[in-house]
């Protein structure tokens, strides 16, 4: 499994709200926010997993995480380590349903529907059989 740990900066800003803006100093552009601490931590994990998955898919080099004590933190903010498992995202993306449009004769459609055939399931079985894939979907 691809597991990563990166430091995240939680910045409360200056508007007095309970929320945070979360950035990852080692990953420019990886940013999110949450309306309170609990949501902010969930959002930080979610954005980190998606960002790192994208880097893996694009063949980019994942940098080494900074040492938290070397990170400058804004007034009232803090640094915490966020854990990310990109294999979960990869599995979710690989099993994401993709809509395909196909054309069959009306008589075949009518016969299949009268037998209660699930077209999506049948197409998946047929493609797997044709490709020699034994893995369950």
From TrEMBL:
Domain HicB-like antitoxin of toxin-antitoxin system positions: 7-108
Annotated InterPro entries: HicB-like, TTHA1013/TTHA0281-like
Organism superkingdom: Bacteria
Alphabetized Pfam families for the sequence: HicB_lk_antitox (PF15919)
Coiled coil location: none
Designated name of the protein: Pilus assembly protein HicB
């Amino acid at each position: 499994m691809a597991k990563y740990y990166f430091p995240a900066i939680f910045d409360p800003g200056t508007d007095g709200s309970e929320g945070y803006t979360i950035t990852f100093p080692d990953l420019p552009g990886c940013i999110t926010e949450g309306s309170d601490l609990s949501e902010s931590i969930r959002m930080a994990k979610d954005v980190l997993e998606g960002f790192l998955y994208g880097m893996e898919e694009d063949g980019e080099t994942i940098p080494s995480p900074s040492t938290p004590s070397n990170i400058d933190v804004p007034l009232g903010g803090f640094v915490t380590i966020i854990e990310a498992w990109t294999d979960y995202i990869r599995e979710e993306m690989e099993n994401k349903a993709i809509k395909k449009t196909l054309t069959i004769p009306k008589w075949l459609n009518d016969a299949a529907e009268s037998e209660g055939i699930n077209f999506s399931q049948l197409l998946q079985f047929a493609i797997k059989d044709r490709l020699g894939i034994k893995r369950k979907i």
